[in-house]
Design brief:
CATH superfamily: YjbQ-like
CATH architecture: Sandwich
Number of helices: 2
Strand content: 15-25%
CATH class: Mainly Beta
CATH topology: Jelly Rolls
Radius of gyration: 15 Å
Order of helices and strands: EEHHEEEEE
Structural class: alpha+beta
Largest sheet: 3 strands, antiparallel
Number of strands: 7
Strand order of the largest sheet: 3-1-7
Distance between the termini: 11 Å
Number of domains: 1
Length: 101
């Protein structure tokens, strides 16, 4: 299955969620891409919005996940998550496509 988000500030990740992992993910993202006013050349939108446009370097806008027996073949603790800290746009589209073999 192919999964794609057609947005400049969104990415997809496969991570464990729950048990604090999602908070750890966001904290790591804040350390790697701090929302500091004036730190980015891209300056429209909310303070630090330039960081949102750098996000796809760390979380790409597409993933490919195998499907076996009609189910996504993810590991026990793996989940597919949309990652988009952009507070300027709350609406997102996710496109799924499958090729039957």
């Amino acid at each position: 299955m192919s999964i794609f988000v057609p947005h400049a500030t969104a990415g997809l990740v496969i991570v464990e969620i729950g048990a604090g992992s999602d908070a750890d993910l966001m904290a790591a993202l804040d350390r790697l891409l701090p929302r500091v006013e004036g730190a980015y050349r891209h300056r429209h939108g909310s303070p630090g919005h330039g960081a949102d446009h750098v996000l796809p370097l760390l979380a790409p806008p597409s993933l490919t996940v195998p499907v076996i027996g009609g189910r996504l073949a993810l590991g026990t603790w793996q989940s597919i998550c949309l990652l988009d800290p952009n507070a300027d746009n709350a609406t997102r589209t996710v496109r799924l496509s499958m090729v039957a073999g």
